[in-house]
Specification:
Elements: H1 12-17, E1 20-23, E2 29-35, H2 44-56, E3 63-64, H3 69-81, E4 87-93, E5 96-104, E6 110-118, H4 127-141, E7 147-153, H5 157-164, E8 169-180, E9 185-190, E10 201-207, H6 208-215, H7 219-222
Parallel strand pairs: 6-7
Antiparallel strand pairs: 1-2, 2-4, 3-9, 4-5, 5-6, 7-10, 8-9, 8-10
Helix pairs in contact: 2-3
């Protein structure tokens, strides 16, 4: 498995040098996935955008809190950058920051798709499709994992629809209960009798073989 920690650079220039290209159906580069490293901790615009987008889409995350530049910086420093089994990418289109996507819980055989947000509209109509495709290709062909999973709330229909286009299938479904903390709350997996919510946590997964077969199908069959 590739040492993903080595991709977390101190400067943006270094990070761009090991970024992933996002390629569309006509083999045109439409975006860059720039790995987040220490360079991002001093990028006030990035920290502000990440915090703003997290707040906007907070309802789709298991942990709910008030996002800020400081909380975002701590998350990036201690988790995305600090942990060796995670990697986070900033999505740039023509030097404009438009979103982010990442992998967590990366092992020699598996990874988890994580933290996918498009914060800015415009650009290619299927930007996030090709962004996810680029990251999955990299996970399977460079990291050499055999399967990629994702945890998605069952009410997040757009995310589930996108993942299904790559062959993701439901592996497990969990009931959820709301747990109130001092300055946040979370949705925790639980038994049916303890559930407080009408939606679920869906754990979906795609194996390398299924992903390869899916993306070679005609577009009309994968939409």
């Amino acid at each position: 498995m590739k040492n993903i920690q080595s991709m977390k650079k101190d400067t943006l220039v270094e990070a761009i040098s090991c970024s992933l290209d996002v390629i569309d159906e006509s083999n045109t580069k439409i975006a860059l996935l720039v790995p987040v490293g220490n360079w991002a901790l001093s990028d006030e615009e990035l920290l502000g955008d990440f915090a703003k987008w997290r707040q906007i889409f907070m309802r789709f995350f298991l942990t709910q809190f008030t996002a800020s530049k400081e909380s975002t910086k701590n998350y990036l420093k201690n988790l995305s950058i600090g942990q060796e089994d995670r990697i986070f990418f900033a999505i740039y289109v023509d030097n404009l920051l438009v979103g982010h996507i990442g992998l967590s819980n990366v092992t020699g055989s598996k990874a988890e798709l994580d933290n996918i947000i498009r914060g800015v509209s415009g650009g290619h109509k299927d930007l996030m499709f090709f962004t996810e495709k680029a990251l999955l290709n990299w996970a399977f062909n460079t990291l050499k994992v055999e399967a990629v999973e994702a945890q998605v709330m069952s009410r997040n229909f757009l995310a589930l629809s996108l993942h299904e286009r790559f062959g993701f299938k439901l592996r497990e479904r969990f009931f959820l209960k709301k747990v109130i903390n001092e300055s946040s709350f979370s949705y925790d997996a639980c038994e049916k009798d303890s559930a407080t919510e009408k939606f679920f946590l869906d754990v979906i997964e795609v194996a390398k073989l299924d992903f390869t077969e899916t993306i070679t199908l005609p577009c009309s069959r994968v939409k």
